[in-house]
Amino acid sequence: MSDFDAPVLDCGKTLEELSDYLDRGRVPRDPSIEECPSCLNALDALTRVGVLSRDLISEDAAQLPAPPESWFAAIMDTVRTELRAGREFPIRHPDPRVHITVTEGAVRSLLRATGDTIDGLYVGRTEIIGDAEEPGAPVEIRLSASVAWGMPMQELSATLQELVRRVLAQHTDLNVTAVNVTVEDIHGVESLKDRG
Predict the structure, then answer these.
(1) Is residue 58 in a domain?
(2) Which of 14, 110, 174, 183 has a CB 3.0–4.6 Å from the CB of 6, allowing a cystine?
(3) What pLDDT sits at residue 4?
């Protein structure tokens, strides 16, 4: 993992501690990390970045140089800002005495995991716009993405929109009125300029 600032999560752990824990293969098992939702979300995000960089290096061996360090730094900046638990969104339950919520951080993690199922696409920023804490209030999902060089942007964006709608309907009670995807980067294209 590359060096980065060590912001503190809501639970008190830092990304640096979690990165070191991942580098050790999560051994010995640390219950204070493995049983903490904030830490698990952060571990997932760090793992995704690690897998992406290994994939890009593997792709590089075949045809393209790896993207610049600034590309990974931008991803880590996004991860750092989005790891907070954030707002709590209500989940309906038939028993009015039962109060269930899902955190904004968990929903963002779900959005990222959904993007991970699409080859050639990496979800950057995730935003949940609207009063999602109010049951039934309209909510807009905004996602930024990076698409692999040579992959069909419109097709990947449409696939992401459809999957996000389906997954949020299945796992949350958010009233999603729009899913907007902005492709902000194409990874791998920098290397073509270098070859120029």
Answers:
(1) yes
(2) 14
(3) 45
Cα 47 to Cα 19: distance, rounded to the nearest angstrom? 9
CATH classification of the domain holding 172:
3.30.70.1350
Residues (pLDDT < 50) of the chain are 1-4, 57, 59-61, 64-65, 190-196
Q: What is the pTM of this model?
A: 0.63
Distance (Å, whole) CA 168 – CA 174: 7
Single-letter amino acid code for the residue at 128 = I
The answer to the question of residue 7 being in a domain is no
Residues 7-34: tens digit of each pLDDT: 677 788 887 888 888 888 888 999 998 8
